[in-house]
Design brief:
about 55% helix; single chain; protein transport; binds magnesium ion; chloroplast; translocation; 5 domains; about 900 residues; Rossmann fold; 36 helices; plastid; Helicase_ATP-bd; binds adenosine-5'-diphosphate; Pre-protein croslinking domain of SecA; seven-stranded parallel sheet; alpha/beta
């Protein structure tokens, strides 16, 4: 304990000097007017322009942001929030507990780094959070003269571009990464939406860089699927015998072909090499064997409406939308003699890991980063700094209760809920699956308890946030899967903002509909009784509002949007937003009193009670759940209810646990055993470690592809940016001629053959060949003369193409050339991506020998990539000289 305190103190000292400086400057800012503050910020911008150094500006910029926040939102950054901001600016991860105000913390480094004019990205996990944070924080930025942008899923590229050009842009990791991939497929500079990367702050950084880093982000096309190969491979399995032709590795769900097996198959197929990258059979064969030896009908999948539907092994649940990847699904379809569905082709892909590493300056914040510190450091070079809370934490984490089986565990949970709810203390129960949430709901029904249930479906995020926000109300019981409503602040006694939004929305839409239906007499309308609301001033403003023709033009959605955005707007921009603002303020005044009362009552009851129903795959996720109570010095309690047959213990507990279970005589009462807690901890760490290894492995393999992608995207961008590519084209043509000469001279090809080759490339007859005594002529020519002749022919052909295209107008030729180069770069890259996927699979199988698969993979990837320039030159010249405008 003592050591901990010391660590925090020394850590604080590091930043304390700057914090003191900020506090000092802040005092001097108090006397300035709003416009003087803005002018000061402008000065900082100028200063940066001159010096290109942000460090001397930190204290002043932070002080300005703090003052701007106080004057617009009424929130003054706490000192620990300043420290958080400094950590973020130092390209680190700030671990700040839930409710400590990370949204506000981000404004500090955002404003500082926006002084560079190069843009700041603040990344969140979903559209709802991006929009919420942008709306609430934009006032600070606006006050200081910065503009903000927001990217949402349904935006056009024009809107995206505009929003990315803002000083500070709020965006989700998904949209941002997709925009990056799309930008790198653009054929025109005008379609590119992103600027070069500058500074990025990732909110809930562990969710994005760890939990979501398992799978790469992919843009794909449907492609023709070699149905025959799947069917033939399925047939072949009839001629293979276990342990002679192949071996099965059940634990890793893999099969290994023996030498005898490979030979047998090569014979049946009459091919030379099963592993040939140009005509690969091996993936089909391996998948067919796997489909036979490892995947069984009604165990791993069921057949439904001519389709294979996956069954989850741990839960037994069917997963209708999932498909096994890499051709396995098709192999099982072939085995079951079902129609084989199309495969998709990757046209662009990147992992979050490599994407975020593209930022020259990267930082992140989260409530739970410490347990993943090593991974952050190793992969992202980001260290984690724990920031002390503004107020001391009062949360009580009670020891785990362990039951003998699921039945007694869930009964105990329901019983506990019933007991706690007698006092009215609010409860939040976290589950791992939707099924379990629903099962618990059934149990709570038996006690006649009322509850809210949330499932973390992407389409429900906003609604779920609204529900979670009320989880701190007296008597509330909320059942939520892990991710549901994340990022939402749970205020004890309930959140009045959401409540007011909803109530005013109802009032406004009902009132407007009355007016529109020509029943002007709204004061007598059921409004009063319906909303139990009767302030005279309120009603008169409402009456004038519904007489405003501009207001009447708004749709329900418009009203909803205004209410959401008006939530914290200080400067209304027209008559009706002004009135709405007034109505909101009235409601806030009215509800705030009761909220304060409620808040005190719930605090006296002990705050929010968190119940965990199972240990998760990582300690981080458990901590996220616990962290939902005890915000900003609130009281709160957390307790996990576990069972000996929970997945974690069952699968990773080891043999000792099994023994323990058998020797214990157990009734329904819970166990508290150090041995069990230790086993649980180590099982959880094993799972974490395994997941980390998988991500590390992905990262290692992705490394070479990542370097190649960077090269391609760089080359591509140069072409995209250049006004003319004629120099490139000339160089391509000359290089082709030189290369072919080198190669063919070695192979002793005849001069005539060479000329024929070039006729084909240039797409026209060569005069030397078509003249009558071609043979004599070619014989008379020396190799050097022939080469010069071809150079000349190429220049002429190219020049006449340019002349031909010039007829259509200025720039047509340049655009065509650029498009032809880009399209071919993309085509080669796309083909390279497919080859790399095959290679990845092939190398995995070969790895069972003595060779190191990663090394092999990198070697071959290098060779596959090396040829691309040569191929590009040929494709470009071939396409260009044959192009015409219709
Ligand atoms: P986190 O993301 O860290 O969980 P949020 O950014 O959602 O926390 O903020 C939680 C709550 O704390 C919000 O209601 C916010 O308005 C409030 N808050 C943040 N900073 C301050 C501050 N300096 N003073 C008062 N309230 C604050
Ligand atoms: Mg947050």
């Amino acid at each position: 304990m003592r050591k901990n305190l010391f660590q925090i103190n020394s850590f604080r000292n590091k930043y304390q000097t700057l914090v003191n400086e900020i506090n000092l400057i802040e005092d001097s800012l108090k006397a300035l007017t709003d416009s003087e503050l803005r002018a000061k910020n402008f000065q900082l911008k100028q200063q940066y322009k001159d010096t290109q150094d942000l460090s001397p500006l930190i204290a002043e910029s932070f002080a300005l942001t703090r003052e701007a926040s106080l004057r617009t939102l009424g929130l003054r950054h706490f000192d620990v929030q300043l420290i958080g901001g400094l950590v973020l600016n130092n390209q680190k991860i700030a671990e700040m507990k839930t409710g400590e105000g990370k949204t506000l913390v981000a404004t500090l480094p955002a404003c500082l780094n926006a002084l560079t004019n190069n843009g700041v990205h603040i990344v969140t996990v979903n559209d709802y959070l991006a929009s919420r944070d942008q709306v609430s924080m934009s006032q600070i930025y606006k006050f200081l003269g910065f503009d903000t942008g927001l990217i949402q899923n349904d935006m056009t590229s024009l809107e995206r571009k505009k929003n990315y050009n803002a000083d500070i842009t709020y965006v989700t990791n998904y949209e941002l990464t997709f925009d990056f991939l799309r930008d790198n497929m653009a054929l025109n500079l005008t379609d590119v939406v992103l600027r070069p990367f500058n500074y990025c702050i990732i909110d809930e950084v562990d969710s994005i860089l760890i939990d979501e880093a398992q799978t790469p982000l992919i843009i794909s096309n449907n492609i023709e699927t070699p149905v025959d190969k799947y069917i033939i491979a399925a047939e072949i399995t009839n001629y293979l015998t276990l342990n002679i032709h192949y071996k099965v590795d059940e634990k890793n769900k893999n099969v290994i072909l023996t030498d005898q097996g490979s030979k047998q198959i090569e014979q049946i197929l009459r091919i030379q090499d099963l592993y040939d990258v140009r005509d690969p059979w091996i993936p089909y064969v391996i998948n067919a064997i796997k489909a036979n030896a490892l995947f069984f009908n009604n165990v791993h999948y069921i057949v439904q409406n001519d389709r294979i539907v996956i069954v989850d092994e741990f839960t037994g649940r069917i997963m209708p939308d999932r498909r096994w990847g890499d051709g396995l699904h098709q192999a099982i379809e072939a085995k079951e003699k079902l129609p084989i569905r199309q495969k998709t082709e990757t046209v662009a892909a990147i992992t979050y890991q490599n994407f975020f590493l593209l930022y020259p300056k990267l930082s992140g914040m989260t409530g739970t980063g410490k347990t993943a510190e090593i991974e952050f450091e190793k992969i992202y070079n980001l260290s984690v700094e724990e920031i002390p809370t503004a107020r001391p934490t009062l949360r009580k984490d009670l020891p785990d209760l362990i039951y003998k089986d699921q039945f007694s565990k869930w009964s105990a949970i329901a019983q506990t809920c019933n007991q706690i709810s007698l006092t009215g203390q609010p409860i939040l129960i976290g589950t791992t699956t939707v099924e379990k949430s629903e099962m618990l709901a059934q149990l709570l029904n038996e006690y006649r308890l009322s509850y809210q249930i949330l499932n973390a479906k992407p389409e429900n995020v906003r609604r779920e946030s609204e529900i979670v926000a009320q989880a701190g109300k007296k008597g509330a019981i909320t059942i939520a899967t892990n991710m549901a409503g994340r990022g939402t602040d749970i205020i004890l006694g309930g959140n009045i903002n959401f409540k007011i939004q909803k109530e005013l929305y109802d009032i406004l839409t009902v009132a407007r509909n009355y007016v529109l239906s020509k029943n002007m007499n709204i004061l007598q309308s059921p409004l009063k009784t319906k909303f139990d609301w009767s302030s005279q001033k309120f009603l008169s403003v409402l009456t004038s509002l519904v007489a405003d023709s501009n207001f009447l033009k708004l749709s329900d959605i418009d009203i909803l949007r205004i209410l959401r955005e008006n939530d914290k707007i200080s400067i209304p921009n027209n008559s009706y937003t002004c009135s709405i603002k007034f109505l909101i303020d009235e409601l806030v005044l009215y509800y705030r009193k009761s909220q304060e009362q409620e808040n005190r009552i719930v605090k006296n009851l002990g705050g929010l009670y968190i119940i965990g129903t199972e240990r998760n795959d990582s300690r981080r996720v458990d901590n996220q759940l616990r962290g939902r109570c005890g915000r900003q010095g609130d009281p709160g309690t957390s307790r996990f209810f576990l069972s000996l047959d929970d997945n974690l213990l069952r699968l990773f507990g080891g043999p000792k646990i099994q023994e323990f279970m058998q020797t214990q005589m157990m009734d329904d009462s819970p166990l508290e055993s150090n041995f069990l807690t230790r086993s649980l901890d180590s099982a959880q760490e094993r799972v974490e470690e395994r997941a980390y290894q998988q991500r590390k492995n992905l990262f290692d393999y992705d490394d070479i592809l990542n370097k190649q992608r960077n090269i391609i995207y760089f080359e591509r961008r140069q072409i995209l940016n250049s006004a003319s590519n004629q120099k490139n084209i000339l160089a391509y043509g000359e290089q082709i001629i030189t290369d072919i000469f080198l190669e063919l001279k070695k192979e002793r090809a005849s001069k005539k053959d060479i000329l024929l080759l070039f006729e084909n490339l240039f797409g026209k007859d060569l005069s030397l060949l078509s003249s009558k005594n071609a043979k004599a002529l070619t014989d008379d020519f020396s190799w050097t003369e022939l080469k010069l002749y071809l150079f000349n022919e190429f220049w002429l052909t190219y020049q006449s193409k340019i002349n031909e295209l010039a007829v259509y107008g200025d720039g047509i030729c340049e655009n065509l050339e650029r498009s032809i180069i880009l399209i071919n770069i993309d085509r080669i890259w796309r083909e390279h991506l497919q080859k790399m996927t095959l290679l990845r699979e092939a190398v995995g199988w070969r790895g069972y020998g003595q060779r190191n698969p990663l090394y092999e993979y990198k070697q071959e990837a290098f060779y596959l990539f090396e040829n691309r320039k040569k191929i590009l030159r040929h494709l470009v010249i071939y396409d260009l000289l044959r192009s015409s405008i219709l």
